[in-house]
């Protein structure tokens, strides 16, 4: 009886770990898709991975919604040349994922060139099978 109970506990632990690893990978995949979509101006991907109630806090203190953020890219106010993730750590809490990371961003913001490292935290929520970004907060690091 003890052997069966131990086997069930190990099997459950293995399944939970495998699911967590799969979810962490899925979140990081969506994060990469989002960064790529920001650079390539792929609005279909941005519409899919940004939640309708997104709050996007930029490192300069400005705040956007999903609609205003996508519009700023369409209007050319915000233009990304490259976004390179340098560090990323995902923590899962049920259907919510918190990502802490550092990325290098080359962009133009209202005509001003930017080449900076950002420390960021973002929050994804799984809606059905899709992870969507609901919050972004970043700050500039010394280069």
TrEMBL record:
Residues covered by the DUF4440 domain: 27-133
Gene3D superfamilies in the cross-refs: 3.10.450.50
Segment forming the signal sequence: 1-18
Key words, A-Z: Signal
One protein family per Pfam: DUF4440
Top-level taxon: Bacteria
Protein's recorded name: Nuclear transport factor 2 family protein
